[in-house]
Amino acid sequence: MPPAEYGDTWGMLEQVRLRSGMWVRERQLRDLQATLLGYGIALEVHGIDEPFPFYPGGHFAAWLHERFGWGMSCGWAGAIEEISGTEDPLDLFFRLADEYRGHLPART
Description:
- This protein is an all-alpha fold.
- 59% of the residues lie in helices and 0% in strands.
- The protein is built from 6 helices and no strands.
- The protein has helices at residues 9-18, 20-23, 29-45, 59-68, 75-83, 89-102.
């Protein structure tokens, strides 16, 4: 699927979930955070009005801090990697992102 067809951040993340090996080197969550940061910057540079919660200090990080009390000094990827234990950090990210998305108001 061409990137123009992703629709938004969540569409892009679905492609990452389906083909993580193409997007995230060795399933390193910090690589995904860097990719998402670039995506968010591109939205701003091109004046695209799309909510983007995945900046290191953005809404997703604030939600994780509020929900779990995790420190965010190393960004959301660092926090997830630190607490993931035996769970794959990328899998945990997608589980948490799905939960976060479920709390968002419907976009009109």
